[in-house]
Amino acid sequence: xxxxxxxxxxxxxxxxxxxxxxxxxxxxxxxxxxxxxxxxxxxxxxxxxxxxxxxxxxxxxxxxxxxxxxxxxx
Length: 74
Prior knowledge:
The structure is a single chain. By secondary structure, the protein is α+β, with helices and mostly antiparallel strands. It has a single domain, classed as Conserved Hypothetical Protein Mth637, Chain: A. Helix content is 19%, strand content 39%. The protein has a 5-stranded mixed β-sheet, covered by helices on one side. The chain starts with a strand and ends with a strand.
């Protein structure tokens, strides 16, 4: 399943919100340096969709706040 996300870094708390079907806003407390924010995004999405972190892949936008994510579901 593919979803679109918008990431806000350096937030006061981490949270995820579905804006519309397949489009999410994710706030993370991590900074956007050395992959810290991406790592936290993967953790949040894995928990939200109840899958392993290895099942969440950033397809597009690794260095951008807007990303396309592939979540492998069974």
